[in-house]
Amino acid sequence: MPELPEVETIRRQLAPLVEGRRLERIEILDARWSRPLAPRELASALSGRLVRRLGRRGKYLLWSFEGDVHLAQHLRMTGAVLSNPAPEPAHARVRMQLGPVGGTAPSGGSSKASTRGMQRLVVVDPRRFGTGELLLGSAAMEAFFAARLGLEPLDEMFTAQHLRALAKGRGAPIKALLLDQRKIAGVGNIYADEALFRAGIHPLRPAGSLSSAQHVRLREGLIEALSAGIAARGATIDDFRHVDGVRGSFQDQFLVHRRAGEPCPVCGSTIAKMVVAGRGTYVCETCQARPRGRRR
Predict the structure, then answer these.
(1) For residue 279, how many other CB atoms are within 10 A of its CB?
(2) DSSP per-residue string spanning 159-184
(3) Most exposed: 203, 223, 252, 271, by fewest CB within 10 Å?
(4) Residues 147-205 pLDDT 10s
């Protein structure tokens, strides 16, 4: 699933391609994408509107249109947004046609003048889990995200004290807390593993048992892992692609994730794989000591 670094990579690539352009047409090919709205209802609300800004909240792309109209797009497990793909890619779910910056193309005809500067986007999603949700007004947008997302680790308000308050009294594994988007936005399986390794914390350790020093290290580990992922323009394991179809490269820098059976880059011990919070989890049990009472 694209996590914060992957979605931020897409946002940075898409923003200069769409901001200041008018969404001339949007074709929703799969009704599941726009639920609970019918495709024609969502298309009617967005068509003809100028894209003011392309932002991001956690793992959501946030399209902000003129008239205080917003679209919260979630790529889920296998979604991608491709710019001017040729030929038409498989598993297309949404097509968007945007006019030239600062205006719209002349109606009718197909001359070079009428298509110069146009931008065509295709949302592809083999597993069809991605969504696009219409949000009318800033109040509706803020309420939508407040119900779904906590602070993200790159937010200046995400301090070690904030992390400690989230973990206080929780007996569930710390990795489960990191994956809970209502508590911490943007972190998924890859970056939870990488952050916990950097912090020297076992993913099975009860969240409420961490010390103050461990909260400091975990916050730093989260920021380091996410920042490294953004710098590498995301990780491609299965389906994630840039808007031009290129793969990310952070998978080449993994310290523990998907490295079961390989030596730890710090101590040389063998990296193990286990299931934590329902997810395949990778850990060095020398650098990340297993909590007492947790059997191997």
Answers:
(1) 15
(2) -HHHHHHHHTT--SBHHHHHH-TTTB
(3) 252
(4) 999 999 999 999 999 999 999 999 999 999 999 999 999 999 999 999 999 999 999 99
Give the residue from 64, 288, 290, 74 showing the smallest Cα distance to 181.
74
Angle CA(51)–CA(53)–CA(59) in degrees, nearest 5? 115
3-class secondary-structure state, position 13: helix
pLDDT at 113 over 50: no
Strands 92-98 and 23-28: antiparallel
| 94-100 average pLDDT score | 96
* DSSP assignment of 55-106: EEETTEEEEEETTTEEEEEE-TTT-EEEES-SSPPTTEEEEEEE--TTS-PP
What is the separation of C-alpha 1 from the centre of its chain, rounded to a whole number of angstroms?
7
Distance CA 113, CA 199 (A): 56
Q: What is the pTM of this model?
A: 0.90
pLDDT at 245: 74
Residue type, 9: T
Residues classed as catalytic: 2-3, 59, 279
d(CA 224, CA 219) in angstroms, rounded, equals 9
- Which residues face 69 on adjacent strands? 65, 136
The per-residue b/e assignment along 168-177, b for 16 or more CB within 10 angstroms, e otherwise, is: eebeebbbbb
The angle subtended at Cα 280 by Cα 228 and Cα 154, nearest 5°, is 30
| Nearest alpha-carbon partner for 262 in 278, 282, 287 | 282
